[in-house]
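agent: user wants the full assembly modeled, not chains individually. Plan: 1) parse entity lines 2) check alphabet per entity 3) run joint structure prediction 4) return tokens. Steps 1-2 passed, three entities, 117 residues total. Proceeding.
--- entities ---
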Amino acid sequence: MSKDRSDFFDRVYEVVALIPSGKVTTYGHIAQHLGLKSAARTVGWALNGAAASGLPCHRVVNRFGALSGRLKFGNPFAMEDQLRNEGVAFLDDGTVDMALHLWDPDEAVGRKPTSSS
DNA sequence: CACCTGACAAATT
DNA sequence: TAATTTGCCAGGT
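--- prediction returned ---
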């Protein structure tokens, strides 16, 4: 349908909104699910406004599991606190344990967009 | 109208 | 093995 705005952003919002509690995903995985594995940068840019959109963008971290956008939550501790509140384990580096909480959209959706366009 | 920046990631030299 | 460069989309200057 009319996607003359930013179908890319909309898709990012959809995927981020699907992230289950206690799980986290990376910008690259979202981008890859959208078909643009290299557009991880654009995904981060999309989340730039997602924090105000009510999306669980706190469940999105970079490929290292580091809370790259925690400064966008108003309180840099809000993101970490939120994830810990959901049962996410943090490493000594202050990063999320990707080995336990990595959530793949491609796998969760079954490699198929549920957007039922 | 053209160039630069931005919550990243992967490939190449 | 490490450092550098490119790719991606949108928005701001």
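agent: reporting back. Residues 8-108 of chain A form a domain with the Arc Repressor Mutant, subunit A fold (CATH 1.10.10.10). Helices of chain A lie at 7-18, 27-34, 40-50, 76-85, 98-101, 105-109.
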